[in-house]
Amino acid sequence: MALWDDKSYAGMIVTMLALGMAPGAAQAANGTSFFDDFTKIDGQRWFISDGWSNGAFQNCGWSKSEMTVKDGMLNIGFDKGSVAGKQYKCGEIRTKQEFLYGTYEARMTTPRASGLNAAFFTYTGPTMNRPHDEIDYETLTKDPSSVSTTTFVNGKSGDGTPGHGNGQLVPLPQPLDQGFLDMAFVWSPDRLDYYVNKKLVRSITTRTEVPTNPQNIFFSLWGSDTFGDWMGPFTDPGKPLVMQVDWFGYTAPGDRCKFPDSLTCTVDTP
Fold this sequence. Notes:
The chain starts with 5 loop residues before the first helix and ends in a 19-residue tail after the last strand. The protein has a 16-stranded mixed β-sheet that branches. The chain is mostly beta strands. Residues 13-27 have low confidence and may be disordered. It has 2 helices and 16 strands.
């Protein structure tokens, strides 16, 4: 899940405004299909978080130095270094545009280390002049043999009752630190389907648990000293860690097979 406080948004919003990115700006419905193989970081498409953290719970500050491309891979890092008063630096990238329904796909791998979260998710919230809606793939790297899937609608997961969120761990065909897997979700107005290597692994069909607001696409790797029960106790990994994304694709409803490895080439999606 995305975790924010007012101070974390302040740095992000000032930077966005300086770049002419108006939070909550109207976007065309859904968005236009695209594929990114990360031969470079497209500055027209992606915004790199730099110079702040998401709050006291996070033991690292976002740094553009932890976002690189090499050999057609997007490398999202975690390493020692002082940023925003934190003793570690970490990486986050997000789209400048918001997207709604469609198929979201990434081929990725993560490190193995207790106390870190390697995330592929979509998010919008109050600072973007919308309710908090979110769709998550989160790998708690203490055990990358499974991935956590979750949605938030208007700030609530599940029925909104404490302890009744809809987070669910999905076992993976191999641990994500041992090789790349294709992670995808298909988002439509009445359901959300999660896929791993083109195999359906979870469906959310309760309408009140399916987000309805356009969202930005995020990839991030971050750590925490305070979320031990959830993420595992943090210990200094003693070396730089890297989450890698080979490619990402968004396919708008009605489009098909915009890149060869797309789920939409073989699965009948909306």
